[in-house]
Amino acid sequence: MKKSLLLLLLAIGGSGMAAEPMPNLPPAEIVARVLDTNPSIQAAGSQVLVEEANRRRLEAGPYEWSVRLGGQQRNYTPATGSGERFNEWNAAIERPLRLPGKGSADAELGAAGVALAETARGDARHETSRALLKAWFTWLKEGTSAKQWGEQVALLDKQARAVQRRQQLGDAARLEAIQAEAALAQAAAQLAQAQVRQRTAAEDLSRRFPGLPLVEPNSIAEPLPVSGSASEWIEKILQHSHELGVARGEVGRAQILAGRTGRDRLPDPTVGMHVSRERDGEDRIIGAYINIPLPGGARRATADAALAQADAYGRREAAVLQKITAEAAALYQSANAAYPTWQSGREAAQRLGQAADLTARAYQLGEGSLNDLLAARRLANEAQLSARLLQLDALELRYRLLLDAHQLWDFDGEDETGK
């Protein structure tokens, strides 16, 4: 048990982070289990079962054998003589028959429905993975913010005690002590707010994705630059896009349905056999019949509607392709720019930190004011916090790019049970 816990801590953010291929992320096997229990993914998996049953229904066809039974009484009254009464009955068995080509079209339509449901299940898993990644990094960012403000509070608390000591020795004015205490109070308020946001993010993450271990990493890994051109990444994302796959699947199914509906413009005939017994068995009749509906305007309108629906789905596919291409291009640009942005932010934080240290040394030597020192500390803290958040932004954007290209948490080979 202790060994498993240690391995989990190392995988999430411990000393083994350097060997982790995707640092600052929960282990892939845990993510897979969490996704398998997600209600939206399970609902999409149930829809696959619905379409499989629908496929069997379409393959079997809508027609069934039917039996008709009837009875009658014949009264025979001649012009002269006494009348006669006969008990008679009749029976028939019939069944509509699908014309050639309709059965194979129905089977093709059922298979297209199953394929579309499976693609939709993959889309649900991908969208849930996106939501998990976003919520995870929101929690990391809020935790980083709380940690940064905690460090600032500790630094300002130390500074406030030093000023109080100097005031007691007569080396600092009362105003400086008030300024130090005010700066400490402001930082403490920011820390309290950051801690509330951190707890809120943790609560949201744990409730939306139960079973995901929330272990804060010991450090944040340095992001890597994005390799490859925009066109290469866009092509990868389009190649693996479930949303685009769903749109194309809807087009394919609509086209098959249009073809199948067009075939229904020629109605299916009904064939049957009947037997009857008349005049108390004196007459016995055996026959066969065929019933052919006469097509009307409703069938033509239904076929026209199916063609128009297929055209609508085709145009919707073009819109989805345009949307995903634009989103992929924007994501690539953001991820590509995030790395140099973080480097600039880190450089600024280092410079402002050095400036704050020099200002503190000058104040200790009596060559500067406390107000200058507090301002330098505030700028250094803001820059350090910004650099850390930019670092997490760069990590998140790169992971999001990998996720959309199916190079991160690619569980498409697994079914709804994770097998």
Give the biggest beta sheet: 4 strands, antiparallel
Architecture (CATH level 2) name: Up-down Bundle
Residue runs with pLDDT of under 50 for 5 or more positions: 1-20, 415-419
* Number of extended strands: 4
Indicate how many domains the architecture comprises.
1
Provide mean pLDDT, rounded: 88
Q: Which CATH class?
A: Mainly Alpha
Strand content: 5-15%
CATH superfamily descriptor: Outer membrane efflux proteins (OEP)
Shape: elongated
> Which structural class matches the secondary elements?
alpha+beta
Going across the major beta sheet, what is the strand order?
A: 1-2-3-4
Helix content range? 55-70%
Q: How many DSSP helices?
A: 9
CATH topology: Outer membrane efflux proteins (OEP)
Query: What's the SSE pattern?
Result: HHHEEHHHHEEHH
Span between termini:
25 Å
List the topology elements:
Elements: H1 2-12, H2 28-36, H3 39-60, E1 66-76, E2 84-96, H4 102-168, H5 174-208, H6 230-240, H7 242-263, E3 270-278, E4 283-291, H8 297-364, H9 370-404
Antiparallel strand pairs: 1-2, 2-3, 3-4
Helix pairs in contact: 3-4, 4-5, 4-7, 4-9, 6-8, 7-8, 8-9
Q: How would you describe what is shown here?
A:
The structure is a single chain. This protein is α+β, with helices and mostly antiparallel strands and 419 residues long. It has a single domain, classed as Outer membrane efflux proteins (OEP), CATH 1.20.1600.10. It has nine helices and four strands; from the N terminus they run H-H-H-E-E-H-H-H-H-E-E-H-H. The protein has helices at residues 2-12, 28-36, 39-60, 102-168, 174-208, 230-240, 242-263, 297-364, 370-404; strands at residues 66-76, 84-96, 270-278, 283-291. Helix 4 runs antiparallel to helix 9 (370-404), helix 6 (230-240) crosses helix 8 (297-364) and helix 8 packs antiparallel against helix 9. The two termini are 25 Å apart. Residues 1-20 and 415-419 have low confidence and may be disordered.
